[in-house]
Specification:
Four copies of one chain form a homotetramer. Chain A is an alpha+beta fold and 456 residues long. The first copy, chain A, folds into two domains: 2-232, Aminohydrolase, N-terminal nucleophile (Ntn) domain (Glutamine Phosphoribosylpyrophosphate, subunit 1, domain 1, 4-Layer Sandwich), CATH 3.60.20.10; 256-443, Rossmann fold, CATH 3.40.50. In chain A, 31% of the residues lie in helices and 27% in strands. The first copy, chain A, contains 18 helices and 25 strands. In chain A, the strands form seven sheets. Chain A has a seven-stranded antiparallel beta sheet with strand order 3-2-4-1-10-9-11. In chain A, a hairpin with a 2-residue loop joins strand 12 (215-220) and strand 13 (223-228). In chain A, helix 5 (128-139) crosses helix 6 and helix 9 runs antiparallel to helix 17 (420-427). The radius of gyration of chain A is 23 Å and the shape is globular. At the A-B interface, helix 1, helix 2, helix 3, helix 7 and helix 9 of A face helix 1, helix 2, helix 3, helix 7 and helix 9 of B.
């Protein structure tokens, strides 16, 4: 889970600021590190740990002069929170400087790395981005950009949406499955590639279109061209972008994220009605589907929970007895709204169940007569190998427990999940064009040890 | 606008953590600086610029050992963002160490300071807190705590809610007008004084009651006692705590903030209905009243605007052309929700009008057919001298313009404010017990150059 | 042990830089904190922990605009290493802003503070500088600067060399005993007051003269005037400035520090000759007296020890076995220079004896046949109450041990101290005009529990 | 100019501290960055900009657990002061983790890099260390450590002293010319490889011997072995290590640095006597040769100049008029020592001449009757390509000017350099075994555009 951008800007002093603003609007896609590479007289990169607004200041942006840029925000995955893993990765090669921003995950990363090591190559990081840069530089010895990406596509297994700076060319590429989104906009300043359309809005540009799976977008000397370099019989668009990950104001592959979530709420209301007094989201992930549920059901939308807006990465929670305080600090129940009421809570999904349990308890202790729970997705039963850090299969409560057992575990008076067909209808994309692996345990590409549905 | 807390905790290693957690839940009351003073073997203070979570870490909290503590979060007012102004202020006096956390504003600060300077006194800061500490230490030469506070009350003009550490005693005091809130809770750990009840919830304590205007609460040797030391014929509770400032999950002087805002929305709907397709808040300040308006009117509550959750203090906005991007970065319109719709936006108040204008423009550009605006308070026509930093009278758009002119200025299709009586009814507190000065220009205490309504 | 400066500079943009450079040349007088106060449109102060070069940068210096300034470097004394104790201390008073830089120590600090507390006064720090600012502001209510300093002098017991910023006046004052040095220079830019003449050299100014004990120097509107405001029958100039503390290129009260130390070496050679092959300093404190000893004795000056130039405050020495490595890291013996040689080591003084012992051991282990030790001062037998942090009487090895016992303790083949008369002759100042308390245990002013020699 | 170390330590919790202490004693070899790589369960590296004592603290050292380590301090060369260039460089390869610390400079760096890029390789830094890691990993595919280093030696042109961590093996290697020093010591803890013997002393270990040119030292499973893997007909030991660069307490290739400098002084006295009153070093670079000169000539050694010990990297020197103050801040003349005297100043070398000129002027302005200058090396006429950053040929004053012209330029009354034969005799190493390129313009290895003396 990361965010990528690419910028071509005619005013070379404005490029890094456009990059900064657009990354800022993709901050929800990753808060661990942020970086920008700019191609001017030379290619420079600046990156650091933390939020976009913490990494950059006016003087660092001013130093990054040039017409082309790519950027990246990185999600905090388990363990390795290191500056070495921050992107874009900038390498020098025979082709010239190559900078890479990557959103996705390579299933055959270790195979590829071993193969390269057999050749005597060395690696300074443990990221798949470095492997991609090695392969790319090799293919660019003999092929043009389109050719190199075409061979790369055959080599890589997994998901990869890339923004590249190849010398002064800005290149956007989306793997043939189209797991992760990428779209392109045009503004007065020039062009912008971004993971989500909200980044295009944020810099005042107009949305042009989504980059298609298997398609490359190249901006060279101010000219934009597209080429379809990999055939894609069937897409595998990540359904969790719609359920949880993307910003509600984004439109991905022609589908509004807000609308999808609103539809999810309406569908849930039809599939699993509840005899309650108020509908309340688990903030903020359940907000839109709760509004949809309330709209459909006619039950008032009234908040049962308030979230502390200042909970961030740096918050410390020291000591044993303090840990018990943790939930209360992040959320508080609105006593007057829930007292003696039958409350329906809606969240986008349940992963381990522990947080849901605490929230139900919080609302009940605040005086609710009944606490019902609805989930805006089917049960998550299998891990993701394509970029969403969802813990192991063992940790997923729905991988081993039935709905009634989960209801008991989270101590709700009733619990219902959205049906798979309800989800697919809410999104409005063909089932065969979606990656639903975490919900079905059937993977669109081969993953060792998992069942693959070859879509053809 | 600040937040204060006082803690008595039987486990002296837990005190600073309780203080930390409760300040964390009052973070919305001030983000400029944070500090905690703890009385153990000696009285120590630790404070710094920034958020509670930025100022403190595990090792600083661990060093602050003792049973008694007070804390403070400070709002960023114009100009002087200095560590010297951070609170609590700790002084040594004949009485012993005195630490002061203050929420409010002294109208006669300069008179008091000059008087003290005539005596040869020196000042290391420009804060009214230092003046309070001087007076307090003088009165404590001859009087006990209650006596000293009683004389202090006669001396000070303006608003002052205080949490004090007097040696190892924790003292909470609220001026006789009760401008700013203060309440007390009891937990397994001991006692907690706090500006708002959400802080009591956050540490798992039970709300006991509000400290009354003119009343002191003293926790000494683990025992809590109250004493009414100043007569208060009429209260002057700040109405803006309910409209905007306090957290919605707090209950202040017996009134739920959420309920008040929900009522405001309902009242607005009755007073100023609108023929629209959707009701949307200006996030986050208009959320609760929008929910109330939608509830009353039956028009769907659907968001027209998404706020970027990562907008913070450190965000830079460099350069001229960049400044135009600023609104888009903070908020984005949901095109699919507003296209060809008649949209009603609701905000808590309008100060200068510039932001409202930009928001209306944003929604209109996203395709709304009509954009109407409702405001959850009467027009703000006069400045606040009691602690809310609301700019000068000249900057207040409603101090010189009529509603129709304001509507024209913000380019809305219609505009309506809540009536004063509608506000008072929504709060449910007697008009004579509220400070409504910013809405009426009639001040409950004498302010040079302003009209005073002596309430008696 | 601290350094103070005062600057009057006609170019108001240069003032803070002159202050910076002169403080930089007094860095040896204190490395804990540094600060500068400048009087321009208002009086501003900037201070921080650490070296002058760490505290200030170009932008902080540029912000400090004005014609008058004072500055301070603070020595790290035991315990309280806090920013609160950094100087100059800036206070606001009826007189206006008062900034104080103080070098010295008040024997009656607690008496004075209690007296002020009886009056209801409060203290934000535990420094005698704050007490001085209280008294000064009181006296300035009724008297002019000279009058106020005159009364202050009667009130204070101990040593106090002050640089003051009184509104826009720069004031230098030296207590009637003249414990601590202060001199004045004139440059093209204006005037400079400084603890040592090396600071005057460092900014290209000409040395004018020493400020006399009991004399005030006032620079007002660019004009310098002196006034003798306190009678001083007998001076008590700190002899340790010459022995150890001052920089060798300074000239204090007409006496060259380098010459004094060179003379000490020559006198030592005459008083206590040694049959050795080489003379070597304990670097850097014994360098100049070693050169003098070698000059007088004709024995070659050849270094036995090399000091690591990068040993600083931040150096960590973790763990038990690591601690044994500590001496070797700071110094190393030059094996080839000492092997099979009779070596004479010279240091300026011996405080606890532990370091001397380790150094003797280091040289012996490197192969020296004999290791002799000479000390450029008489034994230190009593603590200092006037500003030099010399540990308690118990920790002073010479307070309880005879020379032969000390020799045994430090494991030298021979040991000799300079005689008191040898020291006095080397300095060339009348015995009655020197403070020799640490060497004689006879104090020039009353100190509770110590014997006072009233010099009259 | 850099410093390298390698450690094998039986107590794996002590390894990083031994590394820290030894790097600390090599701090004079580089102040730009410092780093340590440790091989324990995995290989970890920690590095940062600044001094050893600034980069590491107790917690970072504690995290670096393992029996093997290498370290590096880097000299600040022009331009690229970046964390990317800090060493050790850690890479992953088929062989396993490889960490490299390099002291030296590759003349054929760009040729090697281009060759590797032709193969599709990518580079993340611009350092020759990364090129070395690429080659090494390739050779290690087919050869053992000795074999790989042997082939590497044929490939690399220039100087390279390496400390390597190959998985858990600590490897020290010195190019067949032996440009840069490397020696090995044994302590109770285990073994230590270091650029200079002072590092061995600093950790209480015993000096075993120098690593010979073309020889590898491998510590594997606690066992030390040597192997001569490259024939070296003629050494080319850098003479500037003795003249200026190494610490005086080090013994390099059997020759004491202090003794060499002392001999240089004595030889200078014989070659170029001066009729003067005092001999003074330019501190600190001329100290030892001045002592030798004084010893030989019988003229007193008395300091004319005092150096400010706190001049460091961070010192700012803002503005035009301030720049004139710069010399005075670094050094001050001792007026009383030079007034009306004939002074002889001795420095180790003259590079551009500007500093020498300022120093002569400083002493003359302080009252010296005559100021003579002696230099402890022959004129530097040619640039160094093997690791000492000595500016371009054009900047070297002696590359275009005769001695008399230089004397005139620095405004000395007389000037003399040490003769080349005098230098060689002072060092005591065969001329044919020294690299004297900067003094003769004849290079021991081929450098494009320079004359090469092939020594055979």
């Amino acid at each position: 889970m990361c965010g990528v951008i690419g910028i071509y800007c005619e005013d070379e002093s404005l490029t890094s600021r456009i990059a900064y603003f657009s990354l800022f609007s993709l901050q929800h896609r990753g808060q661990e590190s942020a970086g920008v590479a700019v191609s001017g007289d030379s290619v420079q990169v600046y990156k650091g740990m933390g939020l976009v607004s913490e990494v950059f200041d006016d003087s660092t942006l001013t130093k990054l002069q040039g017409n082309s840029a790519i950027g990246h925000v990185r999600y905090s995955t388990t363990g390795e929170s290191k500056i070495e893993n921050a992107q874009p990765l900038l390498v020098k090669s025979k082709y010239g400087p190559i900078a890479v921003s990557h959103n996705g995950n390579l299933v055959n990363y270790w195979d590829l790395r071993k193969e390269l090591e057999e050749d005597g190559r060395v690696f300074l990081t443990d990221s798949d981005t470095e492997v991609i840069s090695h392969l790319l530089s090799s293919y660019l010895l003999d092929y043009d950009v389109e050719g190199a990406l075409s061979i790369l596509t055959e080599k890589l297994k997994g998901s990869f949406t890339l923004c590249l700076l190849l010398d002064d060319k800005v290149v956007g590429y989306r793997d043939p499955y189209g797991f992760k989104p990428l779209c392109i906009g045009e503004g007065e300043f020039g062009y912008i590639l971004a993971s989500e359309s909200c980044a295009i809005d944020s810099v005042g540009a107009e949305f042009l279109r989504d980059v298609k799976p298997g398609e490359v977008a190249i901006i060279e000397d101010g000219e934009l061209r597209f080429e379809r370099i990999a055939s894609s019989k069937q897409r595998a668009v990540c359904v969790f972008e719609y359920i949880y990950f993307a910003r509600p104001d984004s439109i991905i592959d022609g589908v509004s994220v807000y609308e999808t979530r609103f539809n999810i709420g309406r569908t849930l209301a039809k599939e699993s009605p509840a005899d309650v007094d108020i509908i309340s989201p688990v903030p903020d992930s359940g907000t839109t589907s709760s509004i949809g549920y309330a709209y459909e059901s006619g039950v008032p939308y009234i908040e049962a929970l308030i979230k502390n807006r200042y909970v961030g990465r740096t918050f410390i929670m020291p000591g044993q007895s303090s840990r018990e305080l943790s939930v209360r600090l992040k959320m508080n129940a609105l006593r007057n709204n829930v007292r003696d009421k039958r409350v329906l809570l809606i969240d986008d999904s349940i992963v381990r169940g522990t947080t849901s349990r605490r929230i139900v308890e919080l609302v009940r202790k605040a005086g609710a007569k009944e606490v019902h729970f609805r989930v805006g997705s089917p049960p998550i039963i299998a891990p993701c190998y394509f970029g969403i850090d969802m813990s192991t299969r063992e940790e997923l409560i729905a991988s081993s427990k039935k709905v009634e057992d989960i209801r008991h575990e989270i101590m709700a008076d009733s619990l219902a999940y959205l049906s798979l067909s309800g989800l697919i209808d809410s999104v409005g994309i063909d089932e065969s064009d979606l990656c639903l692996a975490c919900l079905t345990s059937e993977y669109p590409v081969e993953v060792p040890g998992e069942r693959c549905i070859r879509k053809c």
